[in-house]
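SAMPLE LOG
Freezer: B-3
Tube label: C17
Construct: single chain, 171 aa
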Amino acid sequence: MKKEEARKSKQDRIVSTETAQGMAAHLLRRSVQICVALFLDQMQAYAITPVQYAALVTIHDHPGLDQGRLGAISSIDRSTIGGAVQRLEARGLVQRRLSPEDQRVKQAFITPAGRELLRKTRQDLDLVQERLFAPLTANEQDTLLALLAKLVGAHGSLTHSTEQTRDSEAL
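STRUCTURE (predicted):
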């Protein structure tokens, strides 16, 4: 009887703030918030978000991608990547052109201004990483990166088949 009461008691409990703050999902979400804040602080002179930056880097590395492939490679949902590319194009950092093979498809290419932005921001991006990892030893940094890569590798396909959160533009 006591075993059943203990089980019911555990099921009926509401997760407390204290409990939630010790959960991996909460800590990862807070870590993302911190990463975004550090990025925006360091990159404010360039007026670019992390999502726009990720799209720009991906376009640089894979010229001629259509929006769908760009989103898949950068792990950003279709609607968010579309808005990011529009804003990059409006700033003259990327250019979209109709595909010669399929006139319904627009391909994205980085412009000289986009390349220059990536060149100018390289040190700033390194500073974001340094600021993020400042509380950790070199060994802890390596361990954290390895564990995060393992988690993403194991669960990464989940975000490719389902719609990501609507607020991902802030990321």
